[in-house]
Design brief:
The chain is mainly alpha-helical. It has one domain (4-129). The chain has five helices and no strands. The chain has helices at residues 4-30, 32-39, 43-65, 70-92, 100-129. α4 (70-92) packs antiparallel against α5. It is elongated, with a radius of gyration of 16 Å. Keywords: Membrane, Transmembrane, Transmembrane helix. The chain crosses the membrane at residues 12-32, 38-65, 72-92, 98-117.
Length: 138
Amino acid sequence: MSITQPTRFLRTVLLADAATCLATGWLLAFGADFVHGLTGIAAGLSFYAGTALLPIGAFIALVATRLLVAPAVWLVIAGNLGWVAGSVWLLAEGGGGANALGMVFIGAQALVVAVLAEMEFLGVRRMVGGGGLRVEGV
């Protein structure tokens, strides 16, 4: 494996994370009433969650394309784990008024975020373990 392969893998995962974060943020923020109609999730909850995801997605894209440093990636991973924990808590509390489809939506997106966090964890460990902390793309 070349030195750049761990970095390429991590960048790809971070870009996927940024894309899903931005797409979900846009859907929840600008389609809150639509999401509510399908899932029963409160429109206010969808709007604020989506609004929060937009700058987060932009930050993840910045980390992926410009500032690939381990501390920034660890921050992304911590944020993803926080999102998963919040989603699990929401499900445990009844899903914010969600119907069955809403519960599946909350669970599915939490699972996707957990998988992305795991892949980012593996990627940053490869990057750091493969020659120390590197700053790439600055």
